[in-house]
Design a protein that fits this description.
Blueprint lengths: L9 E12 L2 E13 L4 E5 L6 H8 L7 E10 L2 E2 L5 H7 L4 E4 L3 H4 L6 H13 L3 H14 L5 H5 L8 H13 L5 E5 L7 H18 L2 E6 L2 H7 L2 E6 L2 E7 H6 L4 H8 L35 H5 L13 E4 L2 E3 L20 H4 L1
Parallel strand pairs: 3-8, 3-9, 6-7, 7-8
Antiparallel strand pairs: 1-2, 1-4, 4-5, 9-10, 10-12, 11-12
Helix pairs in contact: 4-5, 5-7, 7-8
Length: about 350
Amino acid sequence: MADNNKKPLLEIRNLKTYFYTEDGVVKAVDGVDLEVYPGEVLGLVGESGCGKSVTSLAIMRLISKPGKIVDGEIIFDGRDLVKLGEPELMKIRGNRISMIFQQPQSALNPVFRVADQIGEVLEVHQSLGKRAGDARAIELLKLVGMPDAESRAKSFPHELSGGQAQRVMIAMGLACVPDMLIADEPTTALDVTIQAQILNLIRDMREKFGSSVILITHDLGVIAEMAERVAVMYAGEIVEQADVIPLFQKPIHPYTKGLIGSIPVLGRVRDQLDVIPGSVPNLVNLPPGCRFAPRCQARKEYNLSICTEKRPALHDFEPGHKVRCWLYQDDEQHVAPLKAKKTAKEKK
């Protein structure tokens, strides 16, 4: 659970990141609000294409054409990263904020040895020379559990397995002991035993260095194991945000309920898993109103016309639990059928 008495290390406000294509404007991230507190693990979850990875790249200011950050603020330790020039960003990127990319073997430079790539981070941010950088690279590889670290430091990326390449990425990410680590699908395409090792490694590194972690994944099992708070994304926006236990025990957005209901549970026999009908909307041609409305069974159950007419805001359903849904939010001529009941203290 986040200590909300602390000031957020990272605060994202109304972030909009669009891609200008021949088919139209792709609204990949469209009004995202997030906070990450010092030392916490925030899980960012949702289907492929919902905007998770684009959000992480926007934080790192690595959006390339035809993409562009068109609006919003990314406040990191009191500074708006959107307004910083490249020289200032270079001092933060890889130093105070590091990222583990989704495809490590694609992110590593194929023509440089592992030690040289880790050493480059140390040279840029800590002014270490070649010999000191190589020695520190081997130390970092040992720290992340790389077998035969001295030999692997001399290897090229194509000589590494998927798990080894991921360990190299984590070593690079931790080289400067960052305040924040962004892990984008860190266990994708790895076998189960390597997945567990990588997650344990991220957990150990976070506990040792006290870094905040943004863990991006579509795997709710990973989120349940690793995260303290969870933000659920759908079609470029956050639809629900809460501490991990309340979110899994009492999800309230219909999309979150559908995601959790679709998870097979060991030992529980069901005729079939829950299925969310329909498909994710085209981000070039988004539906009016709520973006989940065309797939939402609850909208039909409660006969809510506002869902297809007006976009709901992300608001507090209960303390620490936010949701974007007309089931829980009043509006002019609309009374929410499932809004939270006020306590006696709130009524006063």
